[in-house]
From TrEMBL:
<dbReference type="Pfam" id="PF03950">
    <property type="entry name" value="tRNA-synt_1c_C"/>
</dbReference>
<comment type="similarity">
    <text>Belongs to the class-I aminoacyl-tRNA synthetase family.</text>
</comment>
<dbReference type="InterPro" id="IPR020059">
    <property type="entry name" value="Glu/Gln-tRNA-synth_Ib_codon-bd"/>
</dbReference>
<dbReference type="InterPro" id="IPR050132">
    <property type="entry name" value="Gln/Glu-tRNA_Ligase"/>
</dbReference>
<dbReference type="InterPro" id="IPR004514">
    <property type="entry name" value="Gln-tRNA-synth"/>
</dbReference>
<keyword id="KW-0547">Nucleotide-binding</keyword>
<feature type="domain" description="tRNA synthetases class I (E and Q) anti-codon binding">
    <location>
        <begin position="457"/>
        <end position="532"/>
    </location>
</feature>
<keyword id="KW-0067">ATP-binding</keyword>
<feature type="domain" description="Glutamyl/glutaminyl-tRNA synthetase class Ib anti-codon binding">
    <location>
        <begin position="340"/>
        <end position="440"/>
    </location>
</feature>
<dbReference type="GO" id="GO:0006424">
    <property type="term" value="P:glutamyl-tRNA aminoacylation"/>
</dbReference>
<keyword id="KW-0030">Aminoacyl-tRNA synthetase</keyword>
<feature type="binding site">
    <location>
        <position position="232"/>
    </location>
    <ligand>
        <name>ATP</name>
    </ligand>
</feature>
<dbReference type="GO" id="GO:0005829">
    <property type="term" value="C:cytosol"/>
</dbReference>
<feature type="domain" description="Glutamyl/glutaminyl-tRNA synthetase class Ib catalytic">
    <location>
        <begin position="30"/>
        <end position="336"/>
    </location>
</feature>
<keyword id="KW-0648">Protein biosynthesis</keyword>
<keyword id="KW-0963">Cytoplasm</keyword>
<feature type="binding site">
    <location>
        <position position="213"/>
    </location>
    <ligand>
        <name>L-glutamine</name>
    </ligand>
</feature>
């Protein structure tokens, strides 16, 4: 094998940057952080950032912190802090250190004083509107604030008065003195502090001035000794400001690297949209199994492994793009295919009677738990002459290629016998309400001596033994590729899939009526399901995690969506 043929592990652009900085000696270790703002629940996009930051620290023997960027008390809450920690642990990660940007408020205040003393920051009396007008536009430079040339002494005095509560909310700001003509609007004397009397979930009422995100984020990274500050692309234009603050303060200077936000087809994964869905009752809370929150995926039945595998497979990208939702769905299918025991359940029942079965007789059959995993063994099922099968598995008249049951045809009952349908019973409207079959005693699964072959196998439950459960058939929340694309007068709400939830009664193998909350199974031929927390001792509730195959892809191919 020549050198070029050797398998080489491909590195993404962040890993390349890290390795180059380690090689050049710019940094001597990999120190990352995951920095959520505690203003909402984590979503699948955050999972990507978590996997990236914790993953890099692990790969390079480094450290990863969890830091709450809690600079906006008006929108933040401990409820979010707790749920974020819980979701990160559930995903399988543990932070090395836990920090809050609010723990750095004193240090930030002192650093602001330093910038003021050195002529790099000033107190400005313009209100929010005026500040915006002075800022200029993308094509026009801004104008200097009339307060830009205050002396450091005056600025210090005013800044202290701001902190001491001597001015009303919004009356003054502290701004960095950079360049009002910069082509990068973020460098046009950005605001560092605003006056805002809001109760903070950690600092209480100690402060009436709060630092802006940009003035907090990089400094927090620096204090913690972060070396690689990975963030999403919208912060690319903020990097010069990140660098400016570190340079002017002369403090440890991490490297900010931007990557593209995860966007998934058929989903909207911003906190803003999710908040609206929850507030307007369009979904049943943050943990609604249709929501793209980690809470939602947990309740839906996704495993942490399936989400981690998905994140690792899609990798990190430098440019925005959309990932097909089918890849996430396939990730959970693949994991559950290995993990989930098979069980039989009938969700749309049609009565099937075996006319040559001895009256009242019940037999035990042996059903394999997971054909892909011999170690999972088998279980016993009660078989009788009165069964439920799926409506869909029977046609009175069917095309030649219909390999399920039809009148005059034969099929194998999984873990049962080959049956032959000779007649049907109909109601007054002509609907088939019962299928009449005979069974072939020589064809019992596992003991078949008949040599008979049939093309199809269907599932069933014994009518007298099956238990009723509630089944929640979840489907995609939006019925379009990109719910953010709206015609005039429409919002994303108009794209909600009206069929994203159907609640039905299902008939399941008896032991499933005792399944524990959180148990996952495959209902044979139907999909993967999890026992929901709404289950009671009297009635289990099963959520459909995902169907066995991508039915949407098929429908699209036939032009059947919308
Ligand atoms: P949202 O758009 O939902 O409000 P956010 O970026 O405001 O998200 P933060 O709590 O500030 O949410 O984010 C914490 C970390 O997660 C940040 O580093 C952010 O860049 C990253 N992140 C947020 N959304 C995504 C996404 N869709 N893909 C990858 N990373 C993301
Ligand atoms: Mg944010």
């Amino acid at each position: 094998m020549t050198e070029s043929q050797e398998p080489r592990e491909s590195k993404n652009f962040i890993e390349q940057a890290i390795e180059s900085d380690l090689a050049s000696g710019r940094f001597d270790g990999v120190f990352t952080r995951f920095p959520p703002e505690p203003n909402g629940y984590l979503h699948i996009g955050h999972a990507k950032s978590i996997c990236l930051n914790f993953g890099l620290a692990k790969k390079y023997g480094g450290t990863c912190n969890l830091r709450f960027d809690d600079t906006n008390p008006a929108k933040e809450d401990v409820e979010y802090v707790d749920s974020i920690m819980d979701d990160i642990r559930w995903l399988g990660f543990q932070w090395d250190n836990l920090h809050y940007a609010s723990d750095y408020f004193d240090q930030l205040f002192q650093w602001a004083e330093k910038l003021i003393r050195e002529g790099h920051a000033y107190v400005c009396d313009l209100n929010a509107d005026e500040t915006r007008q002075y800022r200029g536009t993308l094509t026009e430079p801004g104008r200097n604030s009339p307060h830009r040339d205050r002396s450091p002494e005056e600025n210090l005095k005013l800044f202290h008065a701001m902190r001491d509560g001597e001015f009303p909310d919004g009356a003054k700001t502290l701004r960095a003195k950079i360049d009002m003509a910069s082509p990068n609007i973020n460098l046009r004397d950005p605001v560092m502090y605003r006056i805002m009397r809001a109760h903070h979930h950690r600092t209480g009422d100690k402060w009436c001035i709060y630092p802006m995100y940009d003035w907090t984020h990089g400094q927090s990274d620096s204090i913690e000794g972060i070396t690689f500050s990975n963030c999403t692309l919208e912060f690319e234009n903020h990097r010069p400001l990140y660098d400016w603050y570190c340079e002017k303060l002369g403090i440890h200077h991490p490297r900010q690297i931007e990557f593209a936000k995860l966007k998934l087809s058929t989903l909207l994964i911003g906190k803003r949209h999710m908040l609206r869905m929850v507030k307007e009752g369009l979904v049943d809370g943050w943990d609604d199994p249709r929501m793209p929150t980690i809470r939602g995926y947990r309740r839906r039945g996704y495993t942490p492994e399936s989400i981690r595998n998905f994140c690792s497979e899609i990798g990190v990208a430098k440019f925005p793009g959309t990932i097909d939702i089918v890849r996430l769905e396939n990730s959970i299918r693949e994991h559950l295919n290995r993990l989930a025991p098979r069980r039989m359940a009938v969700l749309d029942p049609l009565k099937l009677t075996i006319t040559n079965w001895p009256a009242g007789h019940v037999e035990t059959t042996e059903a394999v738990n997971n054909p892909g995993d011999p170690e999972s063994g088998s279980r016993e099922m009660a078989f009788s002459g009165s069964l439920w099968i799926e409506q869909d598995d029977f046609r009175e008249e069917a095309p030649r290629k219909f390999f399920r049951l039809k009148k005059g045809g034969s099929v194998r009952l999984r873990a049962g016998y080959i049956i032959d349908c000779h007649d049907v019973v109909k109601d007054d409207d002509g609907n088939v309400i019962e299928v009449l079959c005979t069974y072939d005693p020589e064809t019992k699964s596992g003991e078949d001596t008949s040599g008979r072959k049939v093309k199809g196998t269907i599932h069933w439950v014994s009518a007298d033994h099956a238990k009723e459960v509630e089944v929640r058939l979840y489907d995609r929340l939006f019925a379009v590729e990109d719910p953010s694309v709206c015609a005039e007068g429409q919002t994303f709400v108009d794209h909600l899939n009206p069929d994203s939830l159907k609640v039905i009664t299902g008939y399941v193998e008896p032991e499933l009526a005792n399944a524990e909350i959180g148990d996952r199974v495959q209902f044979e031929r139907l999909g993967y399901f999890i026992v929901d927390i709404d289950s009671t001792p009297e009635k289990r509730v099963f959520n459909r995690i995902v169907t066995l195959r991508d039915t949407w892809g098929k429908m699209e191919a036939k032009g059947k969506t919308n």
